[in-house]
Amino acid sequence: MAAGVQRVLAKCQKCIDSGNFYEAHQMYRTLYFRYSSAKKYNEAIELLHTGSKTLLQHQQIGSGSDLALLLVDVLSNGKVPVTDDTADKVVDLLRIMDNDCQDRHAYLNAALRWTIKVEPQCKAGHPVLHKKCGMLFWQEKNYVQARYHYLHSSDGKNLATMLVEYHTTLGYPSEVDLFIAQTVLQFLCLQNKDTAHVVFVSYTKQHPDVEEGPPYYRPLLNFIWFLLLALEGGKLAVFGVLCDKYQESINRDPSYKEYLDKIGQLFFGVPPPRTQTQGGFFGNIIQSLLGGGDDDDDSSSTTAQTPVRTPITPSEPRNESQVELD
Description:
Structural class: mainly alpha
Radius of gyration: 24 Å
Strand order of the largest sheet: 1-2
Strand content: under 5%
Largest sheet: 2 strands, antiparallel
Shape: elongated
């Protein structure tokens, strides 16, 4: 088999050199089927990575994307673990694909599904792949996609640096606190309080328009800082006082109450709201503090989770698409 593979690869290289890319593509597929049938997954991965990269670099986008998707199939069918090496191969091909390549989005989604298959606890995809995708999109100045992927990683320091660049490049001066507040709240909704703390500290230290603190000049930054401290104690009364005292800052973005409602459920034992009326978010906290949060009639009800939504910027001043977090 090895001798036969070498002969096919030699012919394939001659096709590449002569510009016969269609024939080269078919030869790569032939070798892929041989390796897959023999369950030689490592050999198939190397072959498809090399073949896809070669074709993409020669602007054979359709053929190169086809081999890239086959690569993800091998990773998934072979249940290949997510490592720096395998994630690098995936992102390497993603980097070569043009932004307007129709298969780029499908390829990335397929790669994320592979990581979920081998690591089911990573419901939105493995943090290693998200981190590398975040770096790639940041390099491309696609801050929206970079932010999304960093939110599903544990790389708070690079995310903070990216957010500073994002705000100073495209944000308004009045949004300096909104950029980081939204990010911290979303990390907490994803139950990643360690990265939430890292990104807050790194952002406030790096941003040129944020004075040294705490305390900070902007009330919303103080609220986030106190909230992160309150998580350690887990006392509902402290959480309630914070939300009450900083209600004016919280009201600057309608989504904050949804995030805080979820945070209250996850970290402070606040029951989910039964209706959209009856006092709303703050009324729900007061009910809990007064001991009115339990009701036997609702003991069998199912709790619906509040979605973690990701607006482009806190005030969404630009016409870019909104990304949903899983």
